[in-house]
Design brief:
Helices cover 0% and strands 43% of the residues. By secondary structure, the protein is mainly β.
Amino acid sequence: MEKGGFYNLTDKSYREVIIFGMNGKQKHSYEYDEDKQRLYTIPCRITSNVHSDILVIDSKSDYDGRVVVLDRKGQVKWTYQGYPQVNSGYNLFCPSDIVTTSVGHVIVSDTHRHVLHVLSEQGALLTCKVMADQGIIYPMSLDIDITGQLWVGCSSKEGESCDAKLHIVKFSS
């Protein structure tokens, strides 16, 4: 760990996303933007969409994060830092996983708020659904199966025994 903690950036830090080809050779590396500023603090989840954009969950701290989206050339298209009506004050945006739908929508789980954020492919918020209303708490992992159903893996409450759950959520694109 770097001096000062897990999230501190130093001149010795490497916080990058590397794209490999099917042959195992590195094709691209994304660490800095066009102004030589670091793109990420801790890139922790990655996916791509129907346009081959790269979507990354960047953890800025244990309880604060954002989504950074790059185009195929590595240029930042947009960032998303949460929905102000849900993620304000002490209720920071804490994304844990990200998936994209067949039509390009982006679904992000917000673990500590028990929320799924659904974004357009341009990063505009389409809906922010409080999943606790359906008994789905601590959504940690997401996947969309071949039939288009959203699978939501949930962790147990902090301090309680392991009682993880898996839910299937039907939604329309």
